[in-house]
Write a structure and sequence with these properties.
- The complex is a heterodimer of chains A (278) and B (80).
- With 278 residues, chain A is α/β, with parallel strands linked by helices.
- Chain A has one domain: TIM Barrel (Alpha-Beta Barrel), CATH 3.20.20.
- Chain A contains 10 helices and 8 strands.
- Chain A is globular, with a radius of gyration of 18 Å.
- Chain B is mostly helical and 80 residues long.
- Chain B folds into 2 domains: 42 residues; 38 residues.
- Chain B starts with a helix and ends with a helix.
- The chains are: A alpha/beta (278), B mainly alpha (80).
Chain lengths: 278, 80
């Protein structure tokens, strides 16, 4: 089955991931800009990072037949340095012009501080002015419900197109307000700290598959990109059809990411073929 | 040997994850029963197993057990 991994931090992973993803049906990945594990000090560090994910990483993925797309952002954890954020934001338009950059992400909130909120507003505003897609990170664990509510409040106060905004890392306590407000919702599968494959399928069964993007992120911390494939198997073993699985794990990413014409992979439909027996 | 705070620090997130998985399974069961049209549709065997799990959760959550919770749980599951 063909799968799209819409949230994947490739630079933190080895080529073995690409090889195994290719063998398990992954045809494309999208890499949001991420935190480096420490707070970066210089705008140039971000610029080189954006060059890495927009210029070099597509070549690494291509060796395994996987298309690689990316997003640019200053991570919410680094928003406490507003001067740095403003400097980096000035360079976004040059990356919007690159052939594999899909938009702004992952921006969002971590501790929901004043600086984080200002950074989120600046990121979203810039994206909307340039007709870009937006990927929004919501906080982890105990901060999730409050942070997601705050993200929705910030967006409600801005002129945005919800169809072009993906709010990621939703869980059972945050999915409904995100979908009710018209945004795309992302389930991020992690071994222990976020959603699990089984819980993701529970939510698909409860809320339906429309405007849902399932991903397994994978970064330099404890994470596993193949939780996405585990989720596909869990979905199928509960009796959902192959086409239903393709709608969730391939076609929905096509529908959201394809709003940016650079993402040219189209939804697919399974057809049965008559087999001639000699 | 770990200190009490090390036990919590080392295993809190993993335990949180495991409890969420169990809660999700319980929710999944309730939804499946409702979809089938009421309690009776679950059948005796699934009903007994879910009761066993509920008893197990109570044993695991007991703040002052008489012995090891793990032993008590294995003995409980041996009856199911």
């Amino acid at each position: 089955m063909q799968i799209i991994q819409p949230h994947y931090h490739a630079i933190a992973r080895t080529a073995q991931d690409y090889e195994r993803m290719a063998m398990s049906g992954v045809v494309a990945v999208a890499e949001p800009a991420f935190w480096a594990g420490f707070d970066r000090l210089y705008p140039e560090t971000f610029i080189d990072y954006f060059r890495q994910i927009s210029e070099f990483e597509p070549t690494r993925a291509a060796q395994y037949g996987i298309r690689h797309f990316c997003w640019v952002a200053v991570n919410p954890k680094e928003a406490e340095n507003p001067v740095l954020t403003r400097e980096v934001l000035k360079h976004f338009p040059e990356f919007f012009a690159k052939p594999t950059v899909l938009g702004v992400g992952e921006t969002g909130l971590h501790k929901s501080t004043k600086n984080e909120i200002e950074s989120l507003e600046a990121h979203v505003d810039l994206a909307m002015k340039h007709g870009q897609l937006v990927l929004i990170h919501t906080p982890h664990l105990a901060d999730k419900a409050h942070g997601t509510k705050k993200v929705l409040e910030v967006l409600a106060g801005m002129k945005v197109d919800p169809e072009r905004i993906w709010i990621d890392h939703v869980e059972e306590q945050t999915i409904k307000p995100v979908l009710d407000a018209g945004y795309w919702a992302g389930f991020t599968l992690y071994p222990i700290t976020k959603c699990s494959p089984k819980r993701a399928v529970d939510m698909l069964e409860k809320y339906g598959t429309e405007k849902i993007l399932v991903n397994s992120s994978a970064d330099w911390g404890p994470s596993d990109p193949f939780l996405l494939q585990e989720c596909v198997i869990e979905y199928r073993r509960r009796g959902h059809s192959l086409q239903d699985a393709i709608e969730v794990f391939h076609n929905n990413p096509c529908r959201f990411l394809g709003q940016n014409p650079k993402f040219d992979i189209k939804p697919i439909r399974v057809e049965s073929a008559e087999v001639a027996h000699a | 040997m770990l200190t009490p705070s090390q036990v919590i620090e080392n295993y809190f997130l993993e335990s949180r994850h495991q409890i969420l998985e169990i809660a999700a399974m319980m929710d999944r069961y309730d939804v499946a029963v409702q979809r089938r049209g009421g309690n009776g549709a679950a059948g005796p065997a699934p009903g007994q197993k879910i009761e066993l799990l509920r008893k197990a959760l109570a044993i695991a959550a007991d703040p002052k057990p008489a012995g090891d919770r793990t032993v008590a749980l294995l003995e409980l599951f041996a009856t199911g």
